[in-house]
User: Fold this.
Amino acid sequence: MPEAKYYSCDKDKNFFLTWLRWQYIESPRALFKIIGNFLRFNLSFFSIPLLLKTLIYPWRKYHESYGRGFDFKRFFSAFTFNSISRILGAIVRIILILIGGSMELFLLISGLIVFVMWIIYPLLLLMMLILGFYLIL
Assistant:
């Protein structure tokens, strides 16, 4: 288990520089790792690569055997059932791929918004403080 990093304000280190390093270097790296973990989890959760590989496989491996010899009635019945099973499997997989892809896009956009807000909030706070003092005086 990795040890947690503890930040302390030593006498030989400047608190402001330590905070700047944490705010704009270390935390954004950690934030990118977290966003990447969410994106990888989503791909794994929806099994998007596997769904793409098995797109036209029969639904739940339901298929009917054609049997030995040629009987047109049995052939047509098996062919129809197997075709419907493949079409149904493709439809369900496409829906899951679309849901997983839209969640992936949502997570990516949300992660980028969180990252931008992480960078902007300290500057926004400083601007609000300055504006507040200006309005008071």
Remarks:
- The chain has one domain: 15-136.
